[in-house]
């Protein structure tokens, strides 16, 4: 598995030659591979002896270990920074390369005050281990360079699309459009960091970028650019880059918190692309509707009551509102796309119905002054993102801000919007539309169940569609109330179909699932939402990655950790008839290793039944 699919200029030398390895790292960590709005300096190949201990995949803070280690280090410093923002550390003794990043955080330190020990909060640098690569586990210098390039890139964009820990989330400088990295494997980078986004895009076009590098580059530019420069971005994107597909991947992997101009810029850019005839009005609206359906399924599974720190982190709700507004505006001049009698139009109406239902459900919901989480609130951010009092995300009754305050759904809906919503309510006579009312999208990392508490987990991430009949009935009442408030009519036959719903996608009862032994996001979260969920299917994107690791060529309907006769979790593949096809096992005692941003068991995964 590789980060970039090919290496046009494989590095010369041998992995046994420390000088060659050092020269390869030196070529990667050049100023011209970095974009920065502030001065950067690189200290290359300097020996350092520092406190160093890794425990369960994380760096132990220097004050909590007596161990030291000597490295040959390449360090990237920002302006007036006492700690390197990024450091590539070559351990010549153990023949391994480590990538470490640092960010400013609020931290508690102990001080001796008049003979007593007290704790005080200070601002300090926090070091995070992005990843390591042992030279003995790579085949050649090209594979080593590919892996180091991936880890340095992840130091900026985060190591996971599910940022549960700090290192899995992007650096603040990336989120705010201030710094980025693209490895150079063709040509020589410049001697100075890139400061102009057009130069960055031109530089990137000449490199053999991985797909996710393209995605994260577009995300970075949409985070960085002011609105008046978005037309220029439209002209600068290569013609062979599929923009609708790029944007879907972007929002499948994005971290929306802290909430920046990314969503608004994306919606504005779609308007620019349509006016430039780069995309059609149909493509623009279909992207809006896909994203609304995606957000609604996510918020059905992970609501703002039980999850997201009881609604403290609510960027999805803000995005839902912005995208719904843009979609309704686009519908004004493209009404036929929503009201035709075909499946595509029904899907577009579904997006409007689900978004309107959820938006009204959360009207007036108490939230902190800005979306945040306990971990994010420890990061030192610019004054435009002020730190919130801890009680706002820990105690919901201390919150004062209300979602969508002063702008009820009725004010958003134009006569055309009401017509579309009314037609979408009549669609509930269709079994698939009633099923959608009970579908939530839950995520899981089945190969990570054996990991230790709080250990980073980059094993393949699976997404599952799960269905609850009780949720359909609950949503049916919500929609009936919505129609009454908005004075929209629903035919008696449609109302009866909703109340007596017998439509179901079928699936595996949640009682068959094995509990995850770690307190982390897992498929068994369905039990926190409703007590009658069935798992309908595993979505294919993450599933293909998982199956490729195991060498399995068949495509099952489900891949879940179910209970074996002894009650232990076993990764089980189910066919279309929900019959057990295969069971997969691995030895967690051998640990894990990471390639191209994905972690899998070091001893491999084998088919046992």
Key words describing this protein structure:
single chain, 609 residues, alpha+beta, 5-stranded antiparallel sheet, 4-stranded antiparallel sheet, 21 helices
Write the SSE topology:
Layout: H1 18-28, E1 34-36, E2 40-51, E3 54-55, E4 58-59, E5 68-78, E6 86-91, E7 96-113, E8 116-134, H2 141-157, H3 172-175, E9 179-181, H4 197-205, H5 211-224, H6 230-236, H7 243-253, H8 262-275, H9 281-301, H10 308-311, H11 315-331, H12 336-339, H13 343-361, E10 366-367, H14 390-394, E11 401-402, H15 409-412, H16 415-426, H17 431-436, E12 439-444, E13 462-467, H18 469-486, H19 492-499, E14 508-509, H20 526-529, E15 534-538, H21 540-550, E16 558-563, E17 569-574, E18 580-585, E19 592-595, E20 598-601, E21 606-607
Antiparallel strand pairs: 1-9, 2-5, 3-4, 5-6, 6-7, 7-8, 10-11, 12-13, 13-15, 14-15, 16-17, 17-18, 18-21, 19-20
Could you walk me through the main structural features you see in this protein, from its secondary elements to its overall organization?
This protein is α+β, with helices and mostly antiparallel strands and 609 residues long. Among the domains are: 1-193, no CATH class; 436-607, no CATH class. The protein has 21 helices and 21 strands. The strands form 7 sheets. The chain has a 5-stranded antiparallel beta sheet with strand order 2-5-6-7-8. Strand 6 (86-91) and strand 7 form a beta hairpin. The longest helix has 21 residues, at 281-301. The chain is globular. The relative contact order is 0.08. The model has no long low-confidence stretch (mean pLDDT 92).
